[in-house]
Amino acid sequence: MNMTDEQIVAIVAPMAFNGAIIGLAVLWIKAKFDGVDEKFKGINQRFDDMRDLWRAELHRVEEVLDARLKHLEER
Questions:
Q1: CA-based angle 24:28:33, to the nearest 5?
Q2: Alpha carbon distances (Å) from 56 to 49, 50, 51, 59
Q3: Res 10 pLDDT > 70
Q4: Per-chain mean pLDDT for the chain
């Protein structure tokens, strides 16, 4: 049984269309995940910045307390 060109097109065309739709959906999902990754990178950077700020502030407090204790010990 030989297939005609029209029969082959009738089978292949929907398969190609479905493949294209699936490919576009995968690209769209990947783009969404990339966007989420970028947002998390920004959040991680803010946490890193806050950690550095807290360390600097705590170091400053430690220096002030050390100076005050040293002054009290000298009395």
A1: 145
A2: 11, 10, 9, 5
A3: yes
A4: 92
**Phi then psi dihedrals of residue 39, to 5 deg:** -65, -40
Alpha-carbon span 25 to 18, nearest angstrom = 10
Which residue matches tokens 């065309």? 13
**In this structure, what DSSP letter does residue 3 have?**
P
Encoded tokens for 29 = 């999902």
Q: Is the pLDDT of residue 69 over 90?
A: yes
What is each CA distance from 13 to 1, 18, 22, 47, 60, in whole angstroms? Answer: 21, 9, 14, 51, 71
Residue 32 Cα distances to 21, 65, 69, angstroms: 17, 49, 55
